[in-house]
Amino acid sequence: MDQAAHDAWMGLAQKALKGAPLDTLNTAFPDGFTLGPLHAPMSPVYSGRPVAGPWRVVQRIAHDQPPSKVVAELMNGADALSLVFAGAPDAFGAGLTTATADELDTLLGEVMLDHCPIYLSAGARGAGAAALLSAVVAKRRTLPRELHLGLDPYGAALATGQLVALPIADAVEAAETHDLEGTIALADGRPVAEAGGTPAQELAFALAAFAGHMEDLIDAGIDPGTAARRTAMALSASQDQFTSIAKLRAARRLHAMVVEAFGANTALQLWVTTQRRMLSHTDPTTNLLRLTIAAFSAGVGGADAVTVLPYAPDGRQLASRMGRNIQRLLLEESHLGVIADPAAGSGAVEALTDEIAAAAWAKFQTLSHVGLRQSLMGGTVQSDIAASVDAEAAALNEGERTIVGVTKFPPPNDQSASPILVDAPQPTGAPPPDHSVRALTIAATMGASIADLNQPPASVRSLPPTRLSAAQEDAR
Hints:
single chain; about 475 residues; TIM Barrel; about 45% helix
């Protein structure tokens, strides 16, 4: 910005402030830094998708439904399916109650696995879900186009309190043997955000999980390049547009540093889901605005695959369709995928990216020094996030933060949408003694339930997902 333009802006700002100091326009962020209101253009630091093009529209399947509706999601705009099983961190009390390979085969119906990428989310039951899908693949005798198993013990432990060993290295070796496209491990920061953690806490957790997966895979004899290629990262996007964009851009920068430290050179595979924490139940239609901003932020921030949650939690078909159509409008009418990193060079976004990256890196180093597994078992991760949750709640209670449709402009009539809640399938027998991928697949083929295909978990302190507006809505 040239000096004349800067001076003109300063004059208008001071006039509008009517004598108040200019720093009243500063923005304080929950990760401890403050940014001013005006930033000059910067030399771009490209931190978006490696190649320009549309992101993948991933449709969430988290309610039991007829196979025809699952296929309809693909016929009406989805590029891939995300199967969310009951008990997963992102099931939020709902999820598929599909328990056996035959039931999963029925659910998928006419979905052609060699044309449709499949993403799994099952939390501590990730090994069982992977075995069910592997059994379906064997039954259909069709090599899938892509499978993303989403095996992540760390996020599941934080959200559910269940820390379980998962056969990640074995699954990577099986995928390599069969030349299967896709990823096995997932470094998932979303449970941190859904519990109320800050952007830097979410990113640091995901980085620590990524490094943990890399160390485990390398220790199992897998080369660093393969380990990095088989590990994806998942983060959230909220209605806080610029923070979401900057967080995703910072993720690519820091991921590159971590991968380089392991001796690899692999681009980040970044999945983004819109936050459930930001959604309202008493005025669900306002969620369409939040979801649109979050989806926009995910695309501009460089997500490779995006899932938009339904605006209402009660399973209505319109909510599912809108989640899909929001992305199609952004891609096909706004053409957001044409540029790989639209925010590059923006002074404000570059500055915010730098600050989030620095804060996340400092937290990541602390986690790495102890180890994420040990930090979860010791409760230090949970205590750090809980402090952020308390600070956010205080800001809301004191009126420093408002929620449209809840604390500000509430609807005149109650329009509450009640969520669908289900119970996850329970064990029916003893788990198999052999937890290799092959043994679990055989057991699933013979009819074993998903609840019987996992090792017993260890217990840690959990921070389950919560909605920010829940307390205010309950008090109405």
